[in-house]
Amino acid sequence: MATELTWLGHGCWFVQSNNAAILLDPFLDDSPTAPRKSEDVAPNFILVSHGHFDHVADAARIAKRTSATVVSNFEICEWLGKQGAQSTEPMNIGGTIELPFGRVKMTIAHHSSVLPDGAYGGNPGGFLLTLADGKIYFACDTGLFDEMKEIGRSGIDLAVLPIGDRFTMGPDDALQAVKLIAPRQVAPSHYNTWPPIVQDAEAWAQRIKNETKANPVVVSPGGKIKL
Question: 0.85 cut: is pTM over it?
Fold first, then answer.
Protein backbone atom coordinates (compact mmCIF):
# COMPACT_ATOMS: atom_id res chain seq x y z
CA MET A 1 0.00 0.00 0.00
CA ALA A 2 1.03 3.60 -0.52
CA THR A 3 2.52 5.35 2.50
CA GLU A 4 -0.18 7.07 4.53
CA LEU A 5 0.19 9.32 7.58
CA THR A 6 -2.51 10.02 10.14
CA TRP A 7 -2.16 12.98 12.51
CA LEU A 8 -3.20 11.90 16.00
CA GLY A 9 -2.96 15.39 17.45
CA HIS A 10 -0.07 17.34 18.99
CA GLY A 11 3.23 15.75 17.83
CA CYS A 12 1.86 12.23 17.39
CA TRP A 13 1.69 10.62 13.94
CA PHE A 14 0.78 7.13 12.74
CA VAL A 15 2.53 6.03 9.54
CA GLN A 16 1.56 2.99 7.50
CA SER A 17 4.19 2.01 4.94
CA ASN A 18 5.55 -1.15 3.36
CA ASN A 19 3.43 -3.42 5.61
CA ALA A 20 4.68 -1.63 8.74
CA ALA A 21 2.81 0.53 11.22
CA ILE A 22 4.96 3.26 12.78
CA LEU A 23 3.86 5.45 15.69
CA LEU A 24 5.72 8.69 16.41
CA ASP A 25 5.74 10.33 19.86
CA PRO A 26 2.71 8.63 21.41
CA PHE A 27 0.66 11.10 23.46
CA LEU A 28 -2.93 9.91 23.28
CA ASP A 29 -4.65 9.08 26.56
CA ASP A 30 -4.07 12.51 28.14
CA SER A 31 -4.10 14.57 24.95
CA PRO A 32 -7.09 16.92 24.58
CA THR A 33 -6.95 16.64 20.78
CA ALA A 34 -6.13 12.97 20.12
CA PRO A 35 -8.89 11.19 18.15
CA ARG A 36 -7.70 7.78 19.43
CA LYS A 37 -6.56 6.32 22.74
CA SER A 38 -3.47 4.21 23.30
CA GLU A 39 -5.51 1.01 23.20
CA ASP A 40 -6.72 1.88 19.69
CA VAL A 41 -3.31 1.79 17.97
CA ALA A 42 -1.22 -1.27 17.10
CA PRO A 43 2.18 -0.23 15.76
CA ASN A 44 5.10 -2.46 14.89
CA PHE A 45 7.53 0.37 15.65
CA ILE A 46 7.40 3.35 18.02
CA LEU A 47 9.68 6.33 17.38
CA VAL A 48 10.31 8.67 20.31
CA SER A 49 12.03 12.00 19.62
CA HIS A 50 12.68 13.11 23.21
CA GLY A 51 11.69 12.52 26.80
CA HIS A 52 8.95 15.09 27.48
CA PHE A 53 5.65 13.72 28.77
CA ASP A 54 3.69 14.96 25.76
CA HIS A 55 5.81 12.76 23.47
CA VAL A 56 6.57 9.65 25.52
CA ALA A 57 3.52 9.31 27.78
CA ASP A 58 1.99 6.21 26.21
CA ALA A 59 5.12 4.63 24.72
CA ALA A 60 5.72 1.96 27.36
CA ARG A 61 2.03 1.05 27.60
CA ILE A 62 1.72 0.54 23.85
CA ALA A 63 5.07 -1.22 23.53
CA LYS A 64 4.15 -3.74 26.22
CA ARG A 65 0.74 -4.47 24.70
CA THR A 66 1.89 -4.75 21.08
CA SER A 67 5.54 -5.88 21.45
CA ALA A 68 6.44 -2.96 19.16
CA THR A 69 10.10 -2.09 18.77
CA VAL A 70 10.99 1.31 20.25
CA VAL A 71 13.42 3.48 18.27
CA SER A 72 14.91 6.38 20.19
CA ASN A 73 18.10 7.63 21.75
CA PHE A 74 20.03 5.32 24.07
CA GLU A 75 18.78 6.91 27.31
CA ILE A 76 15.10 6.75 26.37
CA CYS A 77 15.43 3.17 25.15
CA GLU A 78 17.03 2.22 28.48
CA TRP A 79 14.28 4.02 30.41
CA LEU A 80 11.45 2.45 28.41
CA GLY A 81 13.08 -0.96 28.78
CA LYS A 82 12.76 -0.57 32.53
CA GLN A 83 9.10 0.38 32.01
CA GLY A 84 8.46 -2.90 30.20
CA ALA A 85 9.31 -2.30 26.54
CA GLN A 86 10.67 -5.64 25.29
CA SER A 87 12.40 -4.55 22.07
CA THR A 88 14.43 -1.38 21.51
CA GLU A 89 16.72 0.07 18.83
CA PRO A 90 18.89 2.73 20.53
CA MET A 91 20.62 5.34 18.40
CA ASN A 92 21.84 8.93 18.57
CA ILE A 93 22.14 12.13 16.55
CA GLY A 94 23.53 11.52 13.07
CA GLY A 95 23.12 7.76 13.33
CA THR A 96 21.22 5.64 10.81
CA ILE A 97 19.67 2.21 11.14
CA GLU A 98 17.99 -0.12 8.66
CA LEU A 99 14.59 -1.48 9.66
CA PRO A 100 12.14 -3.68 7.75
CA PHE A 101 10.18 -0.67 6.48
CA GLY A 102 13.21 1.42 5.45
CA ARG A 103 16.01 3.57 6.82
CA VAL A 104 15.78 5.76 9.94
CA LYS A 105 18.21 8.59 10.63
CA MET A 106 18.14 10.62 13.83
CA THR A 107 18.60 14.31 13.11
CA ILE A 108 19.44 17.38 15.16
CA ALA A 109 16.74 19.07 17.22
CA HIS A 110 17.29 22.16 19.34
CA HIS A 111 15.14 21.45 22.38
CA SER A 112 15.40 19.79 25.81
CA SER A 113 14.73 16.23 26.97
CA VAL A 114 13.79 15.21 30.51
CA LEU A 115 11.73 12.09 31.17
CA PRO A 116 8.47 12.22 33.19
CA ASP A 117 10.15 11.01 36.40
CA GLY A 118 12.98 13.55 36.09
CA ALA A 119 15.50 11.13 34.57
CA TYR A 120 17.91 12.38 31.91
CA GLY A 121 16.33 11.97 28.48
CA GLY A 122 19.45 12.18 26.31
CA ASN A 123 19.68 14.34 23.21
CA PRO A 124 16.39 15.43 21.62
CA GLY A 125 16.13 14.61 17.94
CA GLY A 126 14.09 14.46 14.79
CA PHE A 127 13.72 11.60 12.32
CA LEU A 128 14.41 11.27 8.61
CA LEU A 129 12.62 8.22 7.22
CA THR A 130 13.65 6.81 3.85
CA LEU A 131 10.75 4.66 2.67
CA ALA A 132 9.91 2.90 -0.57
CA ASP A 133 7.60 5.78 -1.52
CA GLY A 134 9.92 8.63 -0.58
CA LYS A 135 11.43 10.54 2.34
CA ILE A 136 9.66 11.99 5.36
CA TYR A 137 11.37 14.43 7.69
CA PHE A 138 9.84 14.77 11.15
CA ALA A 139 11.53 17.81 12.69
CA CYS A 140 9.73 17.05 15.99
CA ASP A 141 10.20 19.60 18.79
CA THR A 142 12.85 22.04 17.66
CA GLY A 143 13.79 25.60 16.93
CA LEU A 144 15.02 26.72 13.53
CA PHE A 145 18.59 25.75 12.59
CA ASP A 146 20.69 26.23 9.46
CA GLU A 147 21.51 22.53 9.09
CA MET A 148 17.94 21.98 7.92
CA LYS A 149 19.28 22.95 4.52
CA GLU A 150 21.60 19.92 4.63
CA ILE A 151 18.69 17.67 5.57
CA GLY A 152 16.81 19.03 2.57
CA ARG A 153 19.65 18.20 0.17
CA SER A 154 18.63 14.54 0.25
CA GLY A 155 15.27 15.45 -1.31
CA ILE A 156 12.36 15.52 1.13
CA ASP A 157 8.93 14.44 -0.08
CA LEU A 158 7.14 15.49 3.12
CA ALA A 159 8.41 17.65 5.98
CA VAL A 160 6.39 17.70 9.20
CA LEU A 161 7.23 20.87 11.15
CA PRO A 162 6.08 22.28 14.49
CA ILE A 163 4.35 25.65 14.27
CA GLY A 164 3.02 26.11 17.81
CA ASP A 165 5.66 28.61 18.98
CA ARG A 166 6.64 29.14 22.65
CA PHE A 167 8.18 25.66 23.02
CA THR A 168 9.14 25.06 19.36
CA MET A 169 9.35 26.98 16.12
CA GLY A 170 6.43 29.27 15.43
CA PRO A 171 4.88 30.03 12.03
CA ASP A 172 7.56 32.54 10.99
CA ASP A 173 10.50 30.23 11.69
CA ALA A 174 8.64 27.23 10.27
CA LEU A 175 8.24 29.20 7.05
CA GLN A 176 11.99 29.80 7.00
CA ALA A 177 12.51 26.09 7.65
CA VAL A 178 10.50 25.27 4.53
CA LYS A 179 12.73 27.60 2.53
CA LEU A 180 15.80 25.75 3.84
CA ILE A 181 14.46 22.23 3.40
CA ALA A 182 12.58 22.77 0.11
CA PRO A 183 10.25 19.77 0.57
CA ARG A 184 7.67 18.69 -1.99
CA GLN A 185 4.95 18.77 0.70
CA VAL A 186 4.86 20.22 4.21
CA ALA A 187 2.47 19.62 7.10
CA PRO A 188 2.19 21.55 10.38
CA SER A 189 2.29 19.81 13.76
CA HIS A 190 2.53 20.51 17.51
CA TYR A 191 -0.10 23.27 17.62
CA ASN A 192 -3.64 23.89 18.93
CA THR A 193 -3.29 21.32 21.72
CA TRP A 194 -3.53 23.96 24.46
CA PRO A 195 -4.12 27.76 24.41
CA PRO A 196 -0.40 28.72 24.61
CA ILE A 197 0.30 27.03 21.26
CA VAL A 198 -2.83 27.96 19.30
CA GLN A 199 -2.03 28.94 15.72
CA ASP A 200 -3.88 29.63 12.46
CA ALA A 201 -2.56 26.79 10.32
CA GLU A 202 -4.55 27.82 7.25
CA ALA A 203 -3.00 31.30 7.31
CA TRP A 204 0.43 29.70 7.62
CA ALA A 205 -0.35 27.39 4.70
CA GLN A 206 -1.26 30.37 2.56
CA ARG A 207 2.12 31.92 3.31
CA ILE A 208 3.79 28.67 2.29
CA LYS A 209 1.93 28.80 -1.03
CA ASN A 210 2.83 32.44 -1.57
CA GLU A 211 6.50 32.29 -0.62
CA THR A 212 7.74 28.75 -1.38
CA LYS A 213 7.31 25.97 -3.92
CA ALA A 214 6.15 23.46 -1.30
CA ASN A 215 2.59 22.17 -1.21
CA PRO A 216 1.15 22.72 2.30
CA VAL A 217 -1.17 20.02 3.64
CA VAL A 218 -3.23 20.92 6.71
CA VAL A 219 -5.31 18.19 8.37
CA SER A 220 -7.33 18.05 11.57
CA PRO A 221 -6.53 15.37 14.16
CA GLY A 222 -7.53 12.09 12.57
CA GLY A 223 -6.84 13.45 9.08
CA LYS A 224 -4.68 11.56 6.62
CA ILE A 225 -1.86 12.49 4.21
CA LYS A 226 -0.61 10.30 1.38
CA LEU A 227 3.05 10.50 0.51
Answer: yes
Per-residue pLDDT tens over the stretch 163-190: 999 999 999 999 999 999 999 999 999 9
Q: Is residue 194 situated within a structural domain?
A: yes
From first CA to last CA, the distance across the chain in angstroms is 11
Domain count, the chain: 1
Is 225 contained in some domain? no
At 61 the three-state DSSP class reads helix
Q: Which amino acid makes up residue 212? A: T
| Cβ contacts of 172 within 8 Å, gap of 6 or more | none
Q: List, for residues 80-97, the tens digit of each pLDDT value.
A: 999 999 999 999 999 999
Q: Which residues pair with 20 in a beta bridge?
A: 17
Q: What CATH number has the domain bearing residue 190?
A: 3.60.15.10
